[in-house]
Amino acid sequence: MSIRYTLSLKTEVIHADWELMCSEISGIRDRKLFIIDEKVLTLYHDRLQPLLLNNNLLVIKASEENKSLEQVTTILSKMAETNLRRNDAVIALGGGIILDLAGLAASLFKRGCKLIFIPTTFLAMIDAAIGGKTAINYNGCKNLIGTFYPASQVIVNRAFVETLSSVDLLNGWAECIKISLLMPNNLYKKILSSDQRIDQDIIRQAIRLKEKLCRNDLYDSKLRRKLNLGHTFAHLLESVSDYQIPHGLAVAIGIGSAAKLSLQMNLIDQTVYEKIVKPLDMFSFPENIREEIKERLKAEGHRLLSADKKKTSQQRVVLFKGFQQTRIMSIKNPQILIDLLLV
Ligand SMILES: NC(=O)c1ccc[n+]([C@@H]2O[C@H](COP(=O)([O-])OP(=O)(O)OC[C@H]3O[C@@H](n4cnc5c(N)ncnc54)[C@H](O)[C@@H]3O)[C@@H](O)[C@H]2O)c1
User: Fold this and answer.
1) Left if phi > 0, otherwise alpha if psi is -120 to 50, otherwise beta: which for 245?
2) What SS3 class is residue 215?
3) Looking at ligand 1, which residue's alpha carbon is closest to its atom 2?
4) Does the C-beta of 231 come closer than 6 Å to ligand 1?
5) Residue bearing the CA closest to ligand 1, atom 4
């Protein structure tokens, strides 16, 4: 069933099947430049071929190394070469990496041209495509350079999730669980009864909640910061493991750690703690961090925490003050955060 709505950030979301997705794209009169994930093109070549025919196309391998200034330059060069006009459409088809890259280039070219996202990972559908953040990695720092530039249209075709690897499914579930813990909602129950199946309703509810947090805070100064739940821990784990621990898994450990710290600080009781970790226990997130990674945490944790770009004078962490209630707290001694990951 197709559903359409316009989010307050002026992003129209269309939940579409293959047929509607193709007719939406074919219906765009202006010229199109597709920025497409190499793997997605291989997997869905036959289905996508009619859409791509006679259009400009740039194929990019999705990797954090490729979320780079060089790739943005390649996209911008292609835009210039094809003399793209502001009304022409940049259509990004892929996971969060392709969306972040294409979004940044689209926001820069001629001070911003039309941007359409077709997210192909669960994570990109509920998170990266919504809220207008674009980014690349620079100088060894993740997402250091970026803009705020919401897509004008997000076409969500749930069918893409069928070919995701188990790790990429878990990455999406971790962010979905995170969103369900931030404010009162029905998504939490829906996840518990999902049997780990991603249906349209789960995607739609997660999009709605993410949009609610970004609606009046595009520039990430208030409510939107709650979306960092679990992320202080996650960034630390990703850095010390040289990205061997995938983002979603690191977020899952991070949410668990935030819940533990909230319990230790008497912000929540045991019953609330158990409710928070219940959806995490449903999925096969790793429970233990490998010893070698713990050793690196001991040695480098402090330095990495202070390099975290979101750090102000004190370390800020999103904690729980109840079930589906969070608060952002300053932590004077960051060693507490490292110790939580070492147990
Ligand atoms: N802008 C934002 O608000 C925001 C939010 C969350 C994450 N992000 C960014 O998104 C990136 C992570 O996104 P991601 O998890 O989608 O990763 P990704 O884009 O790397 O995709 C993960 C893997 O799945 C493959 N893939 C994509 N679609 C597929 C499909 N349908 N079937 C099979 N394989 C498929 C990709 O080729 C890649 O190997 C990170 O760089 C993160 O910083 C951005």
Assistant:
1) beta
2) coil
3) 128
4) no
5) 128
Per-residue pLDDT in tens (0 to 9) along the chain, 343 residues: 688 887 777 899 999 999 999 999 999 999 999 999 999 999 999 999 999 998 999 999 999 899 999 999 999 999 999 999 999 999 999 999 999 999 999 999 999 999 999 999 999 999 999 999 999 998 878 889 999 999 999 999 999 999 999 999 999 999 999 999 999 999 999 999 999 999 999 999 999 999 999 888 788 778 889 999 999 999 899 888 888 888 888 999 999 999 999 999 999 999 999 999 999 999 878 777 888 899 999 998 888 887 765 556 678 899 999 999 999 999 888 899 999 998 8
Place of tokens 């249906």: 199
100 lines ligand 1 (CB under 6 A): yes
CB 163 less than 6 A from any atom of ligand 1:
yes
The helices-and-strands tally (H runs, E runs) of the chain is: 14, 11
Q: Could you tell me the two tokens for 175?
A: 């962010």
Task: Name the residue at shortest CA distance from atom 10 of ligand 1.
Answer: 96
